[in-house]
């Protein structure tokens, strides 16, 4: 009999035949998941930036007064004025490709 590994997230319901496939599923579908919009991020740092920039009602007010957009590279301390200046910084300083999906457009 093959051992089963059910997903521990209550509403997911998926079952895996190996621990490796379960861990892969969990890491890509549930870890660093936004509790508001359910978008998944590759790191906790990027999730925290997302929560601040997309779901914190005070962020836009504060960003109008001071540089609030953190660099997407966790080890870089740079704060930028807008998401557009951050994109330029990411391309020029960190050599990200210009077609990298930096931000979704706010609706």
UniProtKB/TrEMBL annotation:
Transmembrane segments: none annotated. Coiled coil: none annotated. Residues 7-30, 33-55 form the C2H2-type domain. Pfam families: DUF7565. It comes from the Eukaryota. This is C2H2-type domain-containing protein. It comes from Lottia gigantea (Giant owl limpet).
């Amino acid at each position: 009999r093959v051992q089963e590994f059910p997903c521990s997230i209550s509403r997911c319901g998926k079952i895996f035949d190996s621990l490796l496939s379960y861990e892969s599923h969990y890491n890509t579908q549930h870890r660093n998941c936004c509790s508001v919009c359910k978008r998944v991020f590759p790191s906790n740092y990027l999730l925290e930036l997302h929560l601040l920039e997309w779901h914190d009602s005070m962020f836009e007010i504060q960003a109008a007064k001071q540089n609030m957009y953190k660099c997407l590279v966790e080890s870089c301390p740079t704060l930028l004025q807008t998401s557009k200046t951050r994109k330029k910084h990411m391309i020029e300083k960190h050599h990200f490709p210009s077609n990298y999906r930096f931000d979704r457009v706010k609706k």
